[in-house]
Automatic annotation (TrEMBL):
InterPro entries: Glyas_Bleomycin-R_OHBP_Dase, Glyoxalase_6
Taxonomic superkingdom: Bacteria
Pfam family, one: Glyoxalase_6
Native source species: Nakamurella alba
Residue intervals of the Glyoxalase-like domain: 8-114
Protein's recorded name: VOC family protein
């Protein structure tokens, strides 16, 4: 019996702010705005999974993420600039010189923006 990936849970100091940031960064839709459930959920489109579910956490982030997403845009430089304008920051997690760019979202969660495929 195969597994179907439904969503990734993201613990956040502010689920609404972080979920809203990722909705804007990914161009996804908000399907639960945390007004009743306390969780903020975004999907690529209504009823399309997998999605991201942002839940409250009192624990601060500590250290480098052990799992992070990689994104491959059509234009790496333009996408990095767009994400930086949204509030992402460049981070050094010891990657050295690489063809990808490591960024962090507004709560410090790392992700990579890969170079475009030839």
């Amino acid at each position: 019996m195969p597994l179907t990936w439904d969503q990734m849970i993201v613990e956040a100091a502010d689920p609404v702010a972080l979920g809203g940031w990722w909705a804007q960064a990914l161009g996804w839709v908000v399907v639960d705005d945390a007004s009743e459930s306390g969780a903020f959920e975004i999907l690529p489109a209504p009823d399309v999974t997998p999605g991201l579910l942002f839940v409250p956490s009192a624990s601060p982030k500590s250290g480098k993420n052990r799992w992070h997403p990689d994104f491959r845009p059509a234009d790496q430089a333009a996408e990095v600039e767009r994400l930086l304008a949204l509030g992402a920051t460049r981070v050094d997690i010891g990657q050295g010189e690489q063809p990808w760019v490591v960024l962090a979202d507004i709560e410090g969660n790392e992700f990579c923006v890969l170079s475009s495929r030839p």
